[in-house]
Amino acid sequence: MMSHVACLPLPKRCEWLADLAVDALIEEANLSPKPGLVDRRGSGAHRDLDLPLMQASALSLWETFRSMAEAAHEHVDLDSTLRETLGALGRQGERTMLATTAGVNTHRGAIWALGLLVAAAACSPRLDPTRIAERAAHIARIPDRGVPPAAASHGQSVCARFGVDGAREQAQQGFPAVIEHGLPVLNASRAGGHAEHHARLDALLAIMTQLSDTCVLHRGGLHALRQTQAGARAVLDAGGSASFAGRRALQRLDDTLLALNASPGGAADLLAATLLLDGLQFMPADIRSE
Ligand SMILES: CC(C)(COP(=O)(O)OP(=O)(O)OC[C@H]1O[C@@H](n2cnc3c(N)ncnc32)[C@H](O[C@H]2O[C@H](COP(=O)(O)OP(=O)(O)OP(=O)(O)O)[C@@H](O)[C@H]2O)[C@@H]1O)[C@@H](O)C(=O)NCCC(=O)NCCS
Ligand SMILES: Nc1ncnc2[nH]cnc12
Q1: Which of 23, 51, 172, 181 is within CB 3.0–4.6 Å of 206 for a Cys-Cys bond?
Q2: Residue 287 — pLDDT band, cuts 50, 70, 90?
């Protein structure tokens, strides 16, 4: 069993983490131009989503993230009690999201990924991204006996149909799409002198090159997933979103995804997870040492 330091009540840290998670979701939604996704330009490949709805959904989840952070530092061990508490809070968060959006699934994958990361960061003495992702993976690997019987999700059906890993495995493996692709490309693009929004777009594209995104698979099958991954690779190979050739390739990818009715919603969630882990370095010193 992985243990962690005994934690004193840390309300400021939990609130700060909830702020960070909501900010990451809003910044992901606002980032433009994202291929196939909702952004400042419009609804992408979606008919039932738009930017105000994504923003309202993100804001509605603040209390969910704060409660998850509090649950994590009230428990001494990363054990099944914590896992099942987080599962119940996650399902309550999904209900809050659906009440806010009148039934539209805006952030199910994000509640899962960011919820685990917020919980992992709530009571960790060390805040480096790899360490936090490993702690989140540890929690995600613990079975949740509180899962109610339900019809198979989109993710479960396409994972079974195509034999790929989905959101659950991405978390259980320690968020490799974020740790090995999103964060390194975010930092390399910044180091290359690119503007922050280009660095974030490049991070999204790096995630898209690798991810078996069940949103893309559900809507467009393996053909759409291959087009998504190859199109994202083409933008990065052309010099990234800040370059002239990269922008043209990004436009072509957007056109392709719209024609396929495909949307990389899983990659968007993992960009938000990347921004959350990146933002941990800015935790104020008084909260860090609380
Ligand atoms: C373990 C869960 C994540 C459930 O996973 P599962 O795969 O069974 O369920 P899905 O309902 O399909 O949700 C998974 C969502 O995760 C995102 N995602 C997709 N691929 C990946 C990936 N490879 N890695 C990481 N994340 C991924 C994605 O979320 C985004 O897409 C959502 C819209 O999806 P969908 O409804 O299919 O969309 P549309 O195509 O628009 O639908 P139609 O219009 O066609 O009808 C959107 O929400 C984005 O967020 C996947 O959808 C977990 O959710 C779970 O067990 N929850 C229970 C409670 C719990 O434990 N909570 C957390 C405690 S910390
Ligand atoms: N910007 C976005 N557009 C569509 N689906 C998403 N899921 C998470 N972020 C999204």
Answers
A1: 181
A2: confident
For ligand 1, the distance from its centroid to the CA atom of residue 155, given in whole angstroms, is 6
CA distance 41 to 32: 7
Least Cα distance to 52 among 91, 110, 100 occurs for: 100
CATH topology assigned to domain 11-144+166-288: Triphosphoribosyl-dephospho-CoA protein (1.10.4200)
Question: What type of residue is 232?
Answer: A
> Can you list the alpha helix ranges (DSSP code H) found in 31-166?
51-60, 62-74, 80-100, 108-122, 129-141, 154-162
User: Ligand 2: which of 49, 204, 271 to mutate, most ligand atoms within 8 Å of CB?
Assistant: 49
* Ligand 1 centroid distance, CA of 273 (Å): 14
Ligand 1-lining residues (CB < 6 angstroms): 46, 86-87, 90-91, 105-112, 115-116, 144, 153-156, 166-168, 170, 211-215, 218-219, 265-266, 269-270
pLDDT of residue 10: 57
Helix, strand, coil proportions of the chain in percent (round to 5)?
Answer: 70, 0, 30
The interface predicted TM-score (ipTM) is: 0.96
Burial class (CB in 10 A: 0-12, 13-18, 19+), 240: buried
Closest-CA residue, ligand 1 atom 12, reads 155
What global pTM score does this model have? 0.96
Distance 245 CA to ligand 1 centre (A): 33
Asked if residues 97 and 7 have their Cβ atoms less than 8 Å apart, the reply is: no
